[in-house]
Galactose-1-phosphate uridylyltransferase (Bacillus daqingensis), 501 residues
Amino acid sequence: MNISRLVEELTAWAVRKKLIEKEDHVYCRNQLLEKLQIADFEQPVSAAERDLHSIMEDILKWALDEGRIENDTVTERDLFDTKLMGVFADKPSVIASRFGKEEEKSPEQATAWFYEWNKAIDYIRTKRIEKNVTWKTDTEYGALDMTINLSKPEKDPAEIEKLKHQPASSYPLCLLCRENEGYAGRLNHPARQNLRTIPVTLNEEAWHFQFSPYVYYHEHAIVLKEKHEPMVITGDTFTRLLAFTERFPHYFIGSNADLPIVGGSILSHDHYQAGCYTFPMARAEAEETMELPQFTGVTAARVKWPMSVVRLQGDDRTEVKKAAEHILNSWRAYSDETAGIYAETDGTLHQTITPIARRRGRAFELDLVLRNNRTSSDHPDGIFHPHAHVHHIKKENIGLIEVMGLAVLPGRLKQELRETAEKLAGVSPESALYDGITAKHADWALKVSEGRRTASVEEMETLLQEETGLVFAEILGHAGVFKRDDAGIRAFQRFMQTIQQ
Ligand SMILES: [Zn+2]
């Protein structure tokens, strides 16, 4: 393998992608030689125009052969190729100033430019994300977005809870900290030489805007506090979310809740997720709308959604914020024994909100999703959490993205659903399914395929995907504090009446 040729191909690729200028060509070549620990370079006669992935695959093979990478693992390969890509990443101030220039034209143009840059520099590993399996399932709540995630390892709630109580590691303090920008990484921490963040001011505090390396939807962004401080939902949260939508009106932005079980995967560092995408929940309609007389021009609606959503709308973002804070305080203290809702047990508080802000024309819209993290002997993982009978599909927390109607399902499901489909299409599925990795799906698969079985594996796989989407809708119902039956809707209405005071 001719490493000079590969270095030339990679540098020429970066020029073509406009990551660097022609004038930077020799300089960047020399930077690459240093990172590859080679002193010689022989100008190749010609270099092919290949895509990044195939050039990098060859460089990684060379690095393994030459002992620059010790073990052929994804972790070590990622540490190595990110170091090389860092050569082509402009310094943060240069990127931020370019973002500013684009933003003068329009916020849409700024985020679109930055998104393309993140893909080009391979911070967003497009090739890996393409492996995710995605589909849509029609339900009574509209079409839900389904993803089997093959690009990011999953964490279970116990691990998340454990991580919350872990002492902060020395540097960077966590995976989200802005100190990751440019960091070389180590075996237990990803390399971030090609990460760039854009400073943003929210509620007069320093925050940073960046993209998520695991894109679940268009322009999937993360907005993180400059200080490493824990997730907490307060009135300030609403102020920041609404301010962000004022600056980027084409984006939604939401926060995970601040309690274990109903929160996201990182509770130790305050952060939000944003993006240029319309989620199924944003399309869900109001079932009942009322005025909130205490807040000028603000309406509150109960939304047709399996989780319990109060939707605020108003043209004045300060009034919307005040209304949201009032509802947050009301909810934190609210109990309704007939609906199984207890604000606290034995001195532990259980209630919080998953908030999502967006613009609706001129108006500011804030969806407040009511959450409760109480557990019981029947539901030790959480009462308003996926129940045991659906754990074969998903047992992880229902975080912000799922709340909005996009299922992020564990990677194991790809193989499991495929094998389940094969057995359904084969002879005597009744016995075959109870063997191996399909055993946990057997009862469900037999029930949902009754009277619909064919010998086509593809048809059976489509059927299972559809049914998985329906299970996801059911899971969202488990996470809903007010159920969708008559008694649940009446209980929700009682809560809505209390917020009018
Ligand atoms: Zn942090």
